[in-house]
Amino acid sequence: MLVLGLTGGIASGKSTALQIFKRYTPWVQDSDKVVHKILRQLNMDRKQLSKTAFDNNKINELEKRLHPLVRKANLKFINIAHKNRAQLVVIEVPLLFEAGFDKLCDYTIVINTPEHIQKQRALKRSGMDEDKYNKIIARQIPLRQKLELADFAIKGYPNKLHTIKDIHQLLL
Fold first, then answer.
1. In angstroms, rounded to a whole number, what is the distance separating the alpha carbons of residues 132 and 91?
2. What mean pLDDT is predicted for residues 23-37?
3. Structural domains of the chain, ranges and CATH numbers in brackets
């Protein structure tokens, strides 16, 4: 079984890439959705958290609580996939390298999207503004460093066809 870790900056095209990977395997895990589920289980209001989460002390405290739970969920997912004789598993984790989730993977993939395109995409999202965007970016390692750490890179621009092509070539 091969475990791929997928990452990239905000609005880089991670969700699009994850949907494309679903064409090749049903064993894909979106860690953002895992976090949302955990927050519901902990009775934490995601919208309320997002208003205060980027205070460094609060985000560090929140990540100390969430990362072990997300790691546990991803390990459980990988184990279930293994028991079901999956050949390919993809876990998408925005902070793959920052939180050490790359250690769960055989190979890592970064979505390579220029930062000006990421910013343009992100600012179109509901509830996103320049200040929030900058705070999110500040918590992530720079794209050039992710590219150095990753085993592979795929394009998250200029359109979905480039991403499809890169993923197809990667899996051949």
1. 25
2. 95
3. 2-171 (3.40.50.300)
